[in-house]
Amino acid sequence: MAPTHIAHTLLSQAHSPETASAIFTDKVLHKPLHLRPTSPDPTSQDARAQRRLQRLRKKKKTERRQKPKPLSAKEKRKTGIYDIPDDAKKYEIYVPLHSMWVGYMWEILGLKEGQRNYVTAQSAGSKLASADYHGSEMIVVRSRCVGMVGLAGIVVRDTKFTFQVITKKNELKTIPKRFTVFRFEVPQTDPEDAAAEEYAKGTENRAVSKRANLVFELHGSQFENRATDRATKKFKQRNMTDV
Prior knowledge:
The chain has 243 residues and is an alpha+beta fold. It has helices at residues 6-14, 17-29, 42-65, 73-79, 95-109, 121-129, 194-201, 227-230; strands at 137-143, 152-158, 162-166, 172-176, 180-186, 214-219. Strand 2 and strand 3 form a beta hairpin.
């Protein structure tokens, strides 16, 4: 005689033989047994690896489409991308740049075509405040640092807080803007019009002689902006307490 299951024996003590057999069959013999595997299914692992690989490929594709990350200030200083080499620290190299800047100032002031021979603070003040001064020839007229007064040169770099100029002695000087007043001039005749100057020297007709330059003063403490920021910034007239 086959051994009886212990569950069937216990059910027979509490129920009739027919009821005990039915309960034993439904609850014990036909009960599903859920087992947790001790090792992962290799099929599921392959699918997971495929999904991870697809995510990595999508991420790399997105990174290729994006623009490269700009260099930080520390990285720029380390690479020296803004440093001027010694062989480029010559005043004669930047004289053509100054001539281009004069033409640029003629254009924004409306003097290139002889439209007017004077400027006012109301008509040209905002244009001068937002102009680019790379190539301008500036001289320090007032400064808290007495040793910088009289320093002059062509501006080769205009940063937020300093002007870097090349002097006629082929020296690179960094001048802070704060508490410094700069002066620059804009000639009213075309610097390339040598024939007119020669004619003015050899004749008594003073009508064609060279007119006086337009002289401007720039207060560096009120000018602590980068050239790119000044182009889009709106300037308002206000009193200056440090003058």
